[in-house]
Amino acid sequence: MVCFVYIVKCSDGMYYTGITWNLKKRIAEHNSGKDTSIQKSRLPVRLVYWEKFKTRMLAAKREKEIKGWRREKKELLIKSLR
Prior knowledge:
alpha+beta; 28% strand
């Protein structure tokens, strides 16, 4: 099953990295405050980066890698799309 790793930018400038099967639905869930680990005070969020993977295992590995990065490295990754 296809899976996505994504980065959203919160209203306070914080980056949050996550994993999902349905990217559009997950971003809507974040912004509604439903089923999310992002604090409501950080909402709304804006999708700034995503990658698609063939399996959840590959996506989870990449998510863990990105979560270990410093902010500057995440920003370089996000800018690489532009």
